[in-house]
Amino acid sequence: MKSVFRQSGVGLIEILVTLVILAIGILGLAGLQSQSLKNNESSLQRSQAVVLSYAAFDMLRVNRAAATNGSYNMSMTCAAPTGNTLVSNDQAYWISTLQSSLGAGTCGSINCQPTGDCTVIIQWNEQRATGGSATQTLTTRSRL
């Protein structure tokens, strides 16, 4: 007995189902790429914060006498200090570099003891990253 029904090609419904499955897969990949970009930005900001904290220590080592007597000490501030001294120019440059690299709301703090033990704290907003917080803090301690 011969079969009455013969399949001779792809039906329209099969093509539509394939397109729907393909579209869902591509949307999933786009979402994954979006999250990856956000987290890469977060990683870049953390790396820049580490480099900028080391830059602050280099600034302190160049002018060690002023650093150990407390001239560079400043509480957490987002505004670049003003003045025409080497210390105020260094601080203003450091704060402005922080803000240009990590965002406008970035703040910094420097605290050096007479023994040469210094602490540099940098705060920035990392809310865009997956699970990121509004205030990310990096604390670095070193001896000059």
Structural write-up:
- With 144 residues, this protein is an alpha+beta fold.
- The chain has one domain.
- The protein has helices spanning 12-62, 64-68, 86-102, and strands at 74-77, 107-112, 117-124, 136-143.
- Strands 1-2-3-4 form a 4-stranded antiparallel sheet, covered by helices on one side.
- Helix 1 (12-62) packs antiparallel against helix 3 (86-102).
- The protein starts with 11 loop residues before the first helix and ends with a strand.
List the helices and strands and how they pair.
Elements: H1 12-62, H2 64-68, E1 74-77, H3 86-102, E2 107-112, E3 117-124, E4 136-143
Antiparallel strand pairs: 1-2, 2-3, 3-4
Can you summarize this structure?
The chain is of the alpha+beta class and 144 residues long.
Strand order of the largest sheet: 1-2-3-4
- The topology string of helices and strands comes to HHEHEEE
Most strands sheet: 4 strands, antiparallel
Report low-confidence residues grouped into runs of 5 or more: none
What is the first-to-last residue Cα distance? Answer: 96 Å
The beta-strand count equals: 4
Radius of gyration, rounded? 28 Å
Which strand-content bin applies to the residues?
15-25%
Principal-axes geometry comes out as rod-shaped
Q: Please, how many helices?
A: 3
What does the average pLDDT come to? 87
